[in-house]
Amino acid sequence: MRNYSTIQILAAALVLVAAFTDIRSRRIPNWLTLLGVLAGLSLNGVTYGLAGVRNSLGGMLLGFSAYLILYLLRAMGAGDVKLMAALGAIVGPENWVAVFIASAVAGGVLALGLMVWKGRVRETLFNSLLIVQELAHFRPPFKRNTHLDVKDPRSLNMPHGVAIAAGTMACLALSVM
């Protein structure tokens, strides 16, 4: 049996609570993400000193910056941005990249399932092409089609906290972080 570090346990606890609250209320609470950031900075500081704090800040900045772009394109909610910043503060930039990739894969699989389940395959494929076309011309896709705004009640969306949790847990199970 593998021995998990305190950092790995903290990351798992953060994303599992976030996924649960995201499913239940479609929100990731600020208290949870703030606690994640503070715990990540503190734990890395105590464990690795100043280098740990710098690493933690780097992970937080990377997570926040990458997801801020998605938020500005209205593809993610603000809670997802803050969750990835908190996760970055816990696991650092190198491990955050692995979690990001695994979360993207998990999100894609979940989105495919939701698309088929809701019977919106054709519409989703059309919207995917529209997104690529608009981004290629440096235009925000939601301006052309309001269904592409995550806040539009007619849009097909899912709680992304679940994908983040699945990606994080996969990285832990595969010993990637």
Q: Helices, strands, pairings?
A:
Elements: H1 6-25, H2 30-72, H3 78-117, H4 121-136, H5 141-144, H6 160-173
Helix pairs in contact: 1-2, 1-3, 1-6, 2-3, 3-6
Report on the structure:
The chain starts with 5 loop residues before the first helix and ends with a helix. It has one domain. The chain contains six helices and no strands. With 177 residues, it is an all-alpha fold. It is 77% helix and 0% strand. The model has no long low-confidence stretch (mean pLDDT 90). α1 packs across α3, α1 runs antiparallel to α6 and α2 packs across α3.
List the defining traits of the structure above.
mainly alpha; 6 helices; 77% helix
Quick structural gist:
This protein starts with 5 loop residues before the first helix and ends with a helix.
Instruction: List low-pLDDT spans.
Output: none
For the record, give the distance between the C-alpha atoms at the N and C termini, rounded to a whole number: 16 Å
Q: From N to C, what is the helix and strand string?
A: HHHHHH
Beta-strand content bin:
under 5%
Radius of gyration (CA) equals 17 Å
Backbone structural class:
mainly alpha
Number of strands: 0
How many helices does DSSP assign?
Answer: 6
Largest sheet entry: none
Shape: elongated
Total individual domains: 1
State mean pLDDT (0 to 100 scale). Answer: 90
Tell me roughly what share of residues is in helical segments: over 70%
